[in-house]
Amino acid sequence: MEIWELNLRHLAAIAKIVELGTMSAAAQAVNLTQPAITQALERIERLTATPLFERRHNGMVATAAAQLFVPRIHAALAHVTSRHVTMSRLRALLALADAGSYGGASLRTGLSVPSLHRAVNDLALALRRPLAERRGRIVMLTEAGTALARNFRLARVELEAGLAELEALRGHETRSIAVGAMPLSRARVLPAAIARFLKRHPQVRVAIVEGSRAELVDPLRCGAIDCMVGALRDPLVEPDLVQQPLFRDRLAVIARAGHPLAGGSPTLAELATFPWIVASPGAPLHDSFRQMFAGAGLALPAAPIASGSVMTIRQLLIDSDFLTLLSLDQVAVELEARWLTVLRPAPAGLERTIGVTTRAAWRPTAVQAEFLRDLQAVSSGAGRPA
What residues make up the domain containing 44? Predict the structure, then answer.
C-alpha cells in the first residue's frame, strides 16, 4: 500500500491509543467519537494487514508492529506540525513542488488539476500564508511553501519507513536504501559495502545518487537520500546533520605516466612549478592543497582548473603535465593500468576523514542500520581507522 491511503488524524489517534492505553481516552484526546476511532483503527489494520493492538478488558496493548509503527507516526506528525494538514493536502503540495505545475502534478498523481489546486489553496488559507505563486507557465513555491514541502518530504519518508517495517515484520521485505555518494566513496568503500550487504539482502533496493557534497546535502535534508558517504567537514557547523567517521584517507600527488617529475622524489618547490587541477574552494581536498604549500612556506602554484570529477581529472592529466592531489583509491585502476603515476605522498597531516553524514533526526530502519554496519566493516581495512 501507499501512504496516501492513510489518514493523518487516524494515525494521531493510534499514537494516542498507545500513549493512553484506552480507546475512550484516545478518542477524547484527538476529538473523535469512540466509534470513529474504532473504525479508524480497523481501517488501518486492514490496510496494513497487521494487528496493532491486543484488545483486553482493561485496555489496549500495543503489538510489536505498533511499537515499530507509532514512533514513525510521531516523527511524521512532528514534521507536519499543523492540524490543518490532511494527507490529500500534503500530497498535493509535494506533487506541485516536484512537478512545478499543476498539470505535471496531475500526471504524477493521477489526481485532477482542480482537486490539486483546491487542496493547495485550502492549505494556504488554513495556514494563512501563500504557498505558491504563478510565474508565467510555471508555478513556484514561496519561501513558506518550500519550507513546508521539505517538512512534508520528511514526514513522507517516516511513514514510508513505517509501512516498510510492518511489511518486513510480515516477512515481505520491501525496503530501500538511498545513498549519496561523494567522489571518494565511489572508488572502493561504497561498492564493497553494497556487495557485502546485498549478499544477505538481495531483495532490498539500493539507489546510489552521485554528486559533490554541495549537490547532495539538500537531498539529504529533504529525505530524498538516507545518508551521504564521503569526506567529512571539520568542524561540522550544521546542527541538523550528524557525521560518523569511518577511516582516515592518505593523499598523494598524481600525474601522468612519463611526467617530467616522474621517477624521482620531487620537492614541493618543484611541484609548484607545474599547473594543478584542484577541488573547488570549500572542499577538503582544496584545503589540503593549500595547506601542503603553505606549510612549506611556498606560494600556491597556478591551479586554473577546479574539478571534483575523477573521470575529468584523469583525462586532463593523461593529456597534459598538470598535477593533482587525490586519494590512491580514487585512481587505483588508472595507476594499475599505468596511465597515471604517484609522484610522492602528501606530507603527513594532510589526511581526510571519510565517513557517513545523516540527518540528526534520522531513525534508520533495521536494514538501513545493518547497511551502516557493513560500511564500518569494509572501512576497517581502508586507510587508517578513524
Answer: 3-80
